[in-house]
Design a protein that fits this description.
Elements (H helix, E strand, L loop, with lengths): L2 H15 L32 H19 L3 H5 L14 H14 L4 E12 L2 E17 L6 E17 L2 E19 L5 E5 L3 E3 L3 E9 L4 E11 L12 E2 L4 E7 L7 E11 L5 E14 L2 H4 L11 H18 L1
Parallel strand pairs: 6-12
Antiparallel strand pairs: 1-2, 2-3, 3-4, 4-12, 5-7, 7-10, 8-9, 8-11, 11-12
Length: about 325
């Protein structure tokens, strides 16, 4: 039960109690009297768990140092064997993803800013804002430059004391944006916007906006697919941008799986005879259960099932092909 629901329930009980008849009133017992502010607090004192906080801060600093050294075995030693994150990835998958990431971006470095540490017995939650930069190992064929990586995310790290050591048992990413750009696209002014959360099966809009230099044109696509490992390569349907904007309306999947949104944009000359730059902009879409589906009721017919999702995607793809 989350805090908001707990407070709503508490308020409901208080309101219901205010309707009691005076004839039913009884003298409260000493055990029912309210506790003084010093006896009970909704939020723990930031000075509590001083030793544990120092341990966790050291723990986080060590992981960042080892990650930036690309020491895979040492980094993964900080993960519990039964680790799993909110995308359903386990320790083995994260190990392979990290290995592939460092192979693609051999100079990748990350930095993290801790926003809050909450400690409850042998468990702790760390809220942070994380950034990463790097350069691709290989040049993009036809463009002749390596790609620049910029990434930013926010989320929670869940850790547990196992014996004398803290281990990562899970994590959750609430917000994430990544950009990889080659050639002229490295200096391209581009934004990719979409909601951070959508109900399962519901339609949403994703928009790519550019500020193109004079004399250049852009082609691009917007795709979406459920996050999983290994992640399949999305099928791009290129189309010329209408001015400097490309927008697509899509349905979220009906399986409550978080999604990866990707906008791909290519910069060409006026004749479309030369690709002068390309950028990949991705962001996370957190898909949450539809309340009606959770309650066992029939969901609205508007893109609420996998069949509706597939039809909507097929219709969107057909429309894109017609616009090309």
């Amino acid at each position: 039960m989350n805090l908001k629901f707990s407070l709503f329930l508490l308020v409901s009980l208080v309101v219901a109690g205010s309707n009691f008849s005076p004839a039913l009133a009884v003298e409260p017992s000493p055990a029912a009297t309210a506790a003084s502010p010093g006896e009970f607090a909704l939020e723990p004192d930031s000075k509590d768990h001083g030793d544990e906080r120092k341990e966790i801060e050291t723990f986080l600093s060590n992981i960042e140092t080892l990650w930036n050294d690309h020491n895979l075995d040492a980094v993964m030693s900080y993960y519990a064997d039964d680790y799993i994150n909110n995308d359903g990835l386990d320790k083995k998958a994260v190990t392979e993803l990290t290995k592939d990431f460092w192979k693609t971006y051999p100079d990748a470095k990350s930095s993290s800013k801790t926003k809050e540490i909450r400690i409850d017995g042998n468990y702790a939650t760390v809220e942070s804002r994380d950034m990463a930069i790097g350069t691709t190992a290989k040049e993009m064929p036809g463009i002749g430059t390596k790609g620049d990586l910029n990434s930013i995310s926010e989320g929670q790290l869940y850790i547990k004391r196992l014996g004398t050591a803290w281990k990562i048992i899970g994590d959750r990413i609430d917000f994430e944006k990544v950009r990889v750009a080659f050639g002229l696209a490295r200096s391209l002014d581009a934004s990719f916007s979409a909601p951070e959360q959508v109900k399962s099966g519901k339609a949403y809009s994703a928009k790519l906006e550019l500020a193109l230099p004079q004399g250049l044109l852009a082609v691009g696509s917007i795709t979406s697919q459920a996050l999983k490992y290994p992640q399949p390569q999305p099928a791009d349907l290129w189309r010329q941008l209408d001015g400097s904007v490309l927008e697509r309306v899509m349905p979220a999947n009906g399986n409550n799986r978080n999604e990866l949104l990707m906008a791909t944009v290519g910069i060409t000359n006026k004749e479309h005879s030369a690709l002068m730059g390309i950028a990949f902009l991705t962001r996370r879409l957190n898909v949450v259960p539809n309340a009606q589906e959770e309650a066992g009721e029939e969901a609205p017919k508007t893109a609420s099932s996998d069949t509706k999702t597939e039809k909507a995607e097929a219709k969107s793809e057909k429309s894109e092909k017609g616009d090309k």
